[in-house]
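Bench log, entry 3. Co-assembly request; chain sequences pasted below exactly as received.
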Amino acid sequence: MVKSETLGHIDEQAAQRREYLTLSFSPSSGPLRSRWRNNGLSADFLGDYVKTFLPANEDGSEKWRAEILHAVTYVANEFLENAMKYHDGDIDVPIGIRLELTADRIIVHASNGINAEQAQRYKSFIEYLNIHDAAELLIRQLEESSANPDAKFSCLGLVTMVSDYGVKLGWRFDVSANNPRITTVTTSAVLPFTNDSGEIA
Amino acid sequence: MKNICGESFEVVLGENNTVQFKGALRLSGTDDYGPILGMLKSALEDEGKPVVVDVRELDFLNSSGITMLSRFVIEARNRSDVNLYFFASEAVPWQARSLRNLQRLMPALQIHLT
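Structure output for the full assembly:
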């Protein structure tokens, strides 16, 4: 039996939804640099896909749609970059991204395989993110990144999602039943939107 | 005039210490952004002259790119004699959202949003 742990904001109804769009990538298909180009293509595709389903309004509609399109593209691009960067190449789990659209929100999930040490480090970061103000944390991380350009594990993209886009993040860690050192981590972003104010909520 | 080109972007260092960005920037990290950061920093060498970063035609910037811009802004902040301007566009969603963070890093930074 798979051992699961959830952290942060989890959409419990996600598993029941029948309509979603999923892209799946085999991590071994070519070097990272070649796959990097596909991150942008995939993220742009997901943004365009969502835009098609957004209702048109009388006033400010185009600006609102452009904001939503951009937010989805930004989140999808950062999720894919992180999944490609941090995926453990020795773990035979596909890298996936999934998009769901409901009446009042958009949910983006990304998953990849990590080892036990990575899982522990990621959980520590999540705990740190959850107890700090994201806007303050972002400024602190940018200062630290400037002082230490070689620091590798920043997850700055996740901090910008919360700070600049009002995204609610959640995480699910599924430990393999066959090998406790293998975990599939799924990171989820909920982007609430309203078409009344013309802004992302 | 110097320029750095990629498949989806162009960065040009023009006259009067103006650095103009176009396209979509999604490079993979510190090393890949190094040449662009170097170009930005070279615009700071002309002491006493204003430095302009024009991102109005930069449609997309990933978080590694935001980190690169923040490093440049912190470098400018740490030199007391730099007048730094960003030209930005309200029509490009990331700019209103992310450039305010640069202003928090350098309160003297002037952002012209058009």
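Helices of chain A lie at 32-53, 61-86, 116-130, 134-147, 156-165. Chain A touches chain B at residues 32-33, 36-37, 39-40, 66-67, 70-71, 73-74, 77-78, 81, 85, 138-139, 142-143, 145-146, 149-150, 154, 156-157, 160, 163-165 (CB under 8 Å).
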